[in-house]
Amino acid sequence: MIWTSFASGGIKQPMDNTPIPSVPGSTYSSDGVCQAQITFTTPGPREIQLTASNRLGDKGTAVVQINVAQVQGLSAQILSPYNGQEFTITKGSGNIISLQGASTITGASSRVNPAYTPPPPISSVHYDWYWYPRGGGVNSKKQIGTGSTVAWKPEDSGLCQQLYTPQDVTIRLEVFDPLQGSGFAEVKIRLSCLEPPK
Fold first, then answer.
1. By residue range, what is the domain housing residue 175?
2. I want to staple 7 with a disulfide (CB 3.0 to 4.6 A). Which of 12, 23, 81, 85 is the partner?
3. Dist. CA 170–CA 156, nearest whole Å
4. Helices vs. strands in the chain: H and E counts, helices first
């Protein structure tokens, strides 16, 4: 038995017209049980087809129409600083970089009854800010603070130990909501650390 997915007036996907592998370990018993799994990356109408054949060359096909719904989730945006922004930090001056973020709910799907508008869910988005050095990777991230807006002093994070050597760091914002899930955003900035004027 062979499963196949086709676009049905929707967005064509890479797996269209390509056989879908059956679930490992599934058996093809006399009752015709055959299972397969597939992940769609875009919403829209789909047509799933199952073709069965036997050793004599007899063939049968069954088709079902489905609609892939948009998955709702949470996305993060860093409003400030912008990607590639450069900052001059004077050692010992307590220079502050303002971090501002936002979050939006993505993929809100339409409802069967458009006349009904449910009340907005009680939601509480949590914001966590981090930084990590270039080449360090996200696993080396260190927390800066929490909240949609944070006043960050890079020196308090141990940066600017070396003067006159630009430091490239990544700012990472992670957002979480118990109802909508999680998301993150990153920007890369450059710090130039100088001695205080004499």
1. 73-194
2. 12
3. 16
4. 0, 12
